[in-house]
Prior knowledge:
This protein has three domains: 2-259, HUPs (Rossmann fold, 3-Layer(aba) Sandwich), CATH 3.40.50; 283-408, Isoleucyl-tRNA Synthetase, Domain 1; 416-468, no CATH class. The strands form five sheets. A four-stranded parallel sheet has the order 4-3-9-10, with helices on both faces. By secondary structure, the chain is an alpha/beta fold. Helix 10 crosses helix 12 (368-385) and helix 12 runs antiparallel to helix 13. The protein has helices spanning 37-55, 71-80, 84-101, 117-129, 159-168, 207-219, 233-248, 279-285, 288-296, 308-334, 342-363, 368-385, 392-408, 416-436, 440-452, and strands at residues 2-5, 10-13, 21-26, 59-64, 133-135, 141-143, 183-188, 203-205, 223-229, 253-259, 262-264, 267-268, 304-306, 455-460, 463-468. Zinc ion is lined by residues 27, 211, 236.
Amino acid sequence: xxxxxxxxxxxxxxxxxxxxxxxxxxxxxxxxxxxxxxxxxxxxxxxxxxxxxxxxxxxxxxxxxxxxxxxxxxxxxxxxxxxxxxxxxxxxxxxxxxxxxxxxxxxxxxxxxxxxxxxxxxxxxxxxxxxxxxxxxxxxxxxxxxxxxxxxxxxxxxxxxxxxxxxxxxxxxxxxxxxxxxxxxxxxxxxxxxxxxxxxxxxxxxxxxxxxxxxxxxxxxxxxxxxxxxxxxxxxxxxxxxxxxxxxxxxxxxxxxxxxxxxxxxxxxxxxxxxxxxxxxxxxxxxxxxxxxxxxxxxxxxxxxxxxxxxxxxxxxxxxxxxxxxxxxxxxxxxxxxxxxxxxxxxxxxxxxxxxxxxxxxxxxxxxxxxxxxxxxxxxxxxxxxxxxxxxxxxxxxxxxxxxxxxxxxxxxxxxxxxxxxxxxxxxxxxxxxxxxxxxxxxxxxxxxxxxxxxxxxxxxxxxxxxxx
Length: 469
Ligand SMILES: [Zn+2]
């Protein structure tokens, strides 16, 4: 498996630090609003990376944070006259709803910055002790960039160029910095802001230190992959490297993966242009599986343009997979022959070659567009070869292959009502079990729950029958 490492600017063979295991950190959103489709891209991409690695047999420890203390959150809280915590709690819940809609798996851990303040204070203290950070008179703590000789290695920026650039940009109020390049690790509170007590002042952490600390706590001092949008390369990820490597004395992350920008109608998405699109808005128009398909149909390192036309094309393309799946299911149900014939066995070998193509594409820096092309070859194969009279073995094998490949990409291709039917069946089975155990309260609860969904149960001599109201 090869992946493009931003650090070396090359495609490299993936070799995990520990055999069979992947430790992966993905920078999560700042929760002050509904997530937009730019936030959705890394979520979908890196969820797919994770799914593929799991398919390959790796045990993936996947950590993605929520930044729940930030200027934007505080601003929103003041506007609404509520606490910052209320804002972040609300938008974490909304973000999780969108993630579910996009079929993004919950991370192994979703740490919250506000729950990790002790670790941040500890890391800042270590950095001060080692000479990599210093407190200023007002209690602000800065990272001393010039002491970290490798600063700039991720963004491929030259320290001297950076220094002169920063000098030209010097901001007022920052005269207490030793050097314009130095960045904030801890800052004093302002009136009405949430704060924590620290040895330097009552205040709150800078953004960059959060990820260094959460990554260390949940994944260890050295990790395999650190990922995020390319807008995070500088300064966020560069600063994370500086903090973590100076504190721990070890290489922070072996591989750095970044997804490219997402534009809307060939323009940068921004509040001022009024072309900001939230995932929630998209969900009112499309099943979010269409958005997922749209994102995966391009390479993650290519800029992606969002437009109504491309979403329509994605919807139609996804529907072709769904239809093929439904047809295969019908063939399984209607098959009159069980075992595959000799000629079908030959055909199944051809079908297997599409899985090989799929893997080849994914092994080459997660080329999901080519992987989808392999899925469409399988769809075409199914439509042509799994016809009336096909054996159950043949139809089942192709159906399972199709579902398996789509599942690696996180695409749900079973029809919604079929999933619903399955859910109903499961609930009915659970209700039967509850009754058997004489847990009638639970049994009634399930009956009511189903009634809410418009499902009416009827106990008959042949068992439970159900109808839609
Ligand atoms: Zn981060």
